[in-house]
Amino acid sequence: MSVLANAAVGDRVVHKSFPPISRHRLALYCGASGDHNPIHVDSDFARKAGFPDVFSHGMLVMGYLGQALTDAVPPSQIRAFSTRFAAITQLGAQLTCEGHVAELSEHDGERRARLTLTARDETGQVKLAGEAVVAI
Amino acid sequence: MVDQSVVGRRFTPVTAHVEPGRLRYFFNTLGETNPVYRDPAAARAGGYAGVPVPPTYLFCLEMMDADTPFEFLTALDIDIARVLHGEQSFTYHAPVVVGDTLTFRPQVKSVTDKKGGAMTLIEVETAVVNQHGVHVADTTRTIVVRNGGAA
């Protein structure tokens, strides 16, 4: 039974905070994800590309958002998950991920909820804005 | 600059195996402690045939097991230093668990110029099929190419 069983539109059902993103975390994620784009781990490369320093993989932040989501909803109940990468996530960012129920519906006899999702840094800036459709 | 002529272009299919050790490394990297991912017995008790993959892991699998992980860039003559990830979506049709072997088939879905050509958005859609021929997911990545001129 997920937290969504009795959820209503407007309820916050996803909420989790994460530790600051370090260079070490970016290096680990580079290996763990198979995304070896040097812009996330090599500050010389990042500067040549016009950025002040390395910055987070968007997919690391989406990974955190996915973790916050599956804390609330079992992975087998997620039907769709999407995000827009609204702003670059800098080194040191402390992310908080949240999700609210936007809509309840039924699809081929399955009760579903559409959740709006955000990942914000410690200043409140939205880094990722997205949504998920989950079976209840 | 990338133009409409690449819409519909397909890239080399990728076959990837969902390996427990690599998946554990991913979970360790994200500080994941959810028992459904960390304890095979808990996963089975939850009705899974094995430890399930987390929601974004399909994106990783495709890159990890590709001979040329950035083929969609090199094939379109795009400099990786000029690329940002704009959007990402996943639609899930069936579970994916440890031990599965997945085949990814990427294809360019759209090309859109923005800001008078200063940026180009390229959507690549990938169909994912498992070892039993089950269509398990579709993923779409939108990359943003900074074309220069307007920095």
Your description of this structure?
The complex is a heterodimer of chains A (136) and B (151). By secondary structure, chain A is α+β, with helices and mostly antiparallel strands. Chain A has a domain at 12-21 and 58-135: Hotdog Thioesterase (Thiol Ester Dehydrase, Chain A, Roll). In chain A, 24% of the residues lie in helices and 35% in strands. Chain A is built from three helices and five strands. Chain B is α+β, with helices and mostly antiparallel strands and 151 residues long. Chain B has one domain (4-146): Hotdog Thioesterase (Thiol Ester Dehydrase, Chain A, Roll), CATH 3.10.129. Chain B is built from five helices and five strands. Chain B has a five-stranded antiparallel beta sheet. Chain B is elongated and about 55 Å long. The relative contact order of chain B is 0.23. The model of chain B has no long low-confidence stretch (mean pLDDT 94). Strand 2 of chain A pairs antiparallel with strand 2 of chain B.
Helix content of chain A: 10-25%
What's the tally of helices of chain A? 3
Please give the CATH architecture of the domain at 12-21 and 58-135 in chain A. Answer: Roll
Tell me the total number of β-strands of chain A: 5
Cα(first) to Cα(last) distance of chain B is 16 Å
Question: Ranges of chain B with pLDDT <50 over ≥5 residues?
Answer: none
